[in-house]
Amino acid sequence: MKLSVPGRATATAVTAAATLLVGGSIAGAAPAPHPAVAAAPDIPVANVKAHLTQLQSIATANGGNRAHGRAGYKASLDYVKAKLDAAGFTTTIQQFTSSGRTGYNLIADWPGGDTNQVVMSGSHLDSVTAGPGINDNGSGSAAVLETALAVSRAGYQPTKHLRFAWWGAEELGLVGSRYYVNNLSSTNRAKISGYLNFDMIGSPNPGYFVYDDDPAIEKTFKDYYAGLGVATEIETEGDGRSDHAPFKNAGVPVGGLFSGADYVKTAAQAAKWGGTSGQAFDRCYHSSCDTTSNINDTALNWNSDAIAYAVWALSS
Description:
Layout: H1 11-23, H2 45-61, H3 71-86, E1 90-98, E2 101-110, E3 114-124, H4 134-154, E4 160-167, H5 175-182, H6 186-190, E5 192-198, E6 209-210, H7 215-228, E7 233-234, H8 244-249, E8 254-258, H9 267-273, H10 297-315
Parallel strand pairs: 3-4, 3-5, 5-8, 6-7
Antiparallel strand pairs: 1-2, 2-4, 6-8
Helix pairs in contact: 1-7, 2-3, 2-4, 4-10, 7-10
């Protein structure tokens, strides 16, 4: 996320929530007129963490960061692209210039689905220069990557077209995502039925925040967490500070998840979610200590599953 201005519930519960959302079936109701939509798969948190380990290794080998215009960013992009190419995605690298350095966005399209209705999920792949950026935003990048790979493993054939994106130079002011949106024709912009953004989803002292932008997308995430019995709050800390903003400004419906940055967790939030009140959601935000040790596994696990849940539900 760019700089600011002055234990799992059962799969049964999640599957039940998914069935209610996409099929609308309840006990005693008449059978749905259409075949049941396949439930989203569980996203193995170990796989997401393995991607984070790779991003950490890339940063360590490249001056301790994965920042725009640095070797660590390009190596991160190459890692993600190789995984997607092997899984059958059509990948495109979009190049731009910012602060005198070359930047890159990575776009991955899953073959099939109605290309006039695109469900897009994205995260920024760059870190700040101060550290490796494993929560900010390796966490979102790794979870979106693993969700895309789950699409491939499942051989998922959604009604709508699926697109995934990893943005460059977010930390310099949403540069990559803004470049992408600004270079879409009005026709192609209108084809995006929703953009889902994931920027910091594994904070070590986590909160469970849902963007309150598009009502249908917001409800999808809230329904997922209701299935876990976890209360959520409306996301306000990152409003306008991440890559959903250019899409929202262009009239695209947006939504997303967030686990908190440098705001302080209140006593009420600690009572609701656990963790430590009076302490930032992420004490290592934009710092050298934002390493693989700076991740809460439960938050990463739940949020990764929530991404898949939303992708399946909104594209069916």
